[in-house]
Amino acid sequence: MNKSKVFGSTLIIAGTTVGAGMLALPLASAGIGFSTSLLLMLCLWGLMAFTALLMVELHQFAESDATLHTLAHTILGTKGKWIASFAVMFLFYALCSAYIAGGGAQFNQRISDISGIELNGQITTLLFTLLVAGVVTIGTHSVDKVNRVLFGLKLIAMVLVLSFLAPNITSQYLMSMPLQQGLIVAAIPVVFTSFGFHGSIPSIVRYLDGDVRSLRKVMIIGSALPLVIYVFWQSVTLGVISQEQLLSDTSLGALLVSLSQTVHQSNLSVIVGVFADLALLTSFIGVSLGLFEFMGDSLSSKLGNGKRVKTAAITFLPPLGFALFYPQGFITALGYAAIALSVLAILLPTIMVYKVRYTDFSVEPQGTEATYQVLGGSKALFLAGSVGVFIIAIQILISVGLLPSLG
Predict the structure, then answer these.
(1) Dist CA 153 CA 149 (whole Å)
(2) Collapsed DSSP state (helix, strand, coil) of residue 333
(3) Of 333, 399, 357, 376, nearest to 50 (Cα)?
(4) 90: which residues sit within 8 A by CB, 6+ positions away?
(5) What's the number of CA atoms in the CB half-sphere (13 Å) around residue 41?
(6) How far apart are CA 41 and CA 193, in angstroms?
(7) Is there a contact between 60 and 367 (Cβ–Cβ < 8 Å)?
(8) 127-141, 250-264, 287-301, 390-404: which range is least confident on average?
(9) Using only C-alpha atoms, what is the Rg of the chain?
(10) Which pLDDT tens digit goes with each residue over 23-57?
(11) What would the DSSP string read from start to end of 253-295?
(12) Are 238 and 26 a contacting pair, CB within 8 Å?
């Protein structure tokens, strides 16, 4: 397998993961403290890496260009196909709506800072969407190239931010304990969503021609990189800002202002802003690529000529419309993503793998190599599925007011 493709695929997974969720992590963790948030991140990373490998196992039973839509139909039948389709569309459209709303606003601010020209917010949102749509429509190869540059810039910005903030870490802040037990439970959906990249897996499988060995490496390393980044990010954000200050205003803008004011460095606010831009942009590109491939596979027989352009329209116009009419919907759209992500990344993979392994499943794996099977057996599948149901229940309880909201 081409090492360049494996490297690029790893960065797509990492770039998709390290997005808007990263910016929400300090806010979600403000009431529970660094050590508790670290434990949550380790557990939920392990869960998401496990289910990603389950997806690799499942893709052995379909062509390399199959999406979750195709897999669910092959393994679970028509009902499974519709459940998968709804979960994917709900998650992807919610995330794309959030990224377009947040990215359009940040794009507008960046143009204003650089040129001094004040543009209409709807115009910059449209331009931002067209730029990403153009890259995604060309294909995964273009996403790979663009994402490498953006991910490299994001790492540089992150290192600069960490270097400015690290000397100001207060150990007492890192020793803060949870203010109440309910906040620990309420933080789980946000931390869980911060490790979400599963929607991009079918695109990576297709890009790597279904090579299982390469895919295993990509899933493990690609998901572990964000974990390392998150640990450093949480240590500096929770270490330089007190619990009281974080909880006094749980907005993203307030977080960025607090970080900038902590260190008396004139360029820090600009660097933090650029880092936030790149974190959101790389995640948006990865998520929109997954939605583009999914819609193209689902509607392939109905699109006819100009398939990629029509698929791009179906992919980007609905979330663009949401972002234009509800520009404040960034947090709202992200809030419910955990429910769809639980179905997409946990429940469906565990149920499908169980059926393939332990029932009379008639479809043979593609290729001649020995079938890859993730370790853990039925107990691991049951445990993972139970956590998925638990996360959905948490978000529902938050929505009805029985658990504290994080913002």
Answers:
(1) 6
(2) helix
(3) 376
(4) 339, 340
(5) 28
(6) 11
(7) yes
(8) 250-264
(9) 21
(10) 778 878 888 888 899 999 999 999 999 999 999 99
(11) HHHHHHHHHHTT-TTHHHHHHHHHHHHHHHHHHHHHHHHHHHH
(12) yes
Per the CB < 8 A criterion, the answer to whether 104 and 124 are in contact is yes
List pLDDT tens digits, range 171-182: 888 877 666 667
Produce one character per residue of 18-35: b if its CB has 16 or more CB atoms within 10 Å, e if not. Answer: bbbbbbbbbbbbbbbbbe
Six-digit token pair at 402? 């029985």
Residue 261 has pLDDT above 50, yes or no: yes
Per-residue confidence (pLDDT) for residue 38, from 0 to 100 = 92
Burial 328-365 (b: 16+ CB within 10 A, else e): ebbbebbbbbbbbbbbbbbbbbbbbbbbbeeeeeeeeb
Place of tokens 């009902």: 79
Q: Report the amino acid identity of residue 407.
A: G
CA–CA gap between residue 65 and residue 257 (Å, rounded): 44
For residues 66 and 60, what is the distance between their CA atoms, to the nearest angstrom?
10
Q: How far apart are the first and last CA of the chain?
A: 45
> What residue has token string 């959030």?
98
In angstroms, the Cα distances linking 149 to 142, 162, 221 are 11, 20, 19
Residue keyed to tokens 């289910």: 51
Q: Name the nearest CA neighbour of 259 among 96, 27, 103.
A: 27
Is residue 100 helix, strand or coil?
helix
What are the DSSP E strand ranges found in 6-155? Answer: none
| HSE-up (13 A, CA, CB side) for residue 306 | 5
Tell me the residue type at 80.
G
